[in-house]
Amino acid sequence: MFITKTAKFLNLAFRIKKLKTKYKNSALCLTENLVSIYTLRFIHKTVVSNLRKQETYIILIIFSLLIGCKDNKKEIDFQNRKTNSEWSKIEYKERNVEFKFPAKDYKIEHDTLKVDWLGNVHLQRWTFNTKNEKNYPNFGYSFSHYKYPEHNFTKEEIDEFFDGIVKNLMDALDAELIYNRQIDYHGNHGRELYYFMPSTKIYLTERTYLINNEQYALTVITKKEKILNKSIKTFLESFAILK
After folding, report:
1. Which fold has domain 2-70+83-241?
2. 80 three-class SS
3. What is the predicted pLDDT for the residue at 28?
4. How far apart are the C-alpha atoms of 106 and 159, rounded to whole Å?
5. 172: alpha, beta or left, given left = phi > 0 and alpha = psi -120 to 50?
6. In the structure, what pLDDT confidence band is assigned to residue 117 with cuts at 50, 70 and 90?
């Protein structure tokens, strides 16, 4: 069973590598960039030689970087666009949380992933693509929510869960980990992760929390020349649980 699951995982990893190679050179395009973030969660059990069972969490965030170039793109004056204080607030009423995007033209996606021993994992994700407009310092933003209605995380599983995010994101995207630090939101465990992907010359910053057995993740993709922009902090710190 484990060998079969591993083979399927390796086959997926191979397809991921082909996808990255396909779009690798396109990342240098300086006009319109459409970035979509697709998250797949694979969780499998490993049986060690002494028959002890250890649960290993594997989380892969796969980027499909779709580039469209237009010759007659109109220049947009940065000073005429919204400032950070004017960001659009999005209320996720189902979970009584909120976050902010630079503008309102975002999209929402829903998905359900079936995992044998975990049951159904429900995903809801909001994404905002900046389309490389010059007033935006980042390529795109994503807020994701995962529900695990059929599984309760133990205290011992939480660190393993986050460690799996760190390691497998590096492996899947050939990314370099710049930093990984523990954070919390009102006593709930979380991580802040910062990666660089040499093949595409882009940076990824993520804050993810495990709150009441559900995961919330805020992800921003940044241009190399704009890695210190204030919009990253504005987005990451916009997450709040409403009273």
Report:
1. Protein Transport Mog1p; Chain A (3.40.1000)
2. helix
3. 28
4. 32
5. alpha
6. low
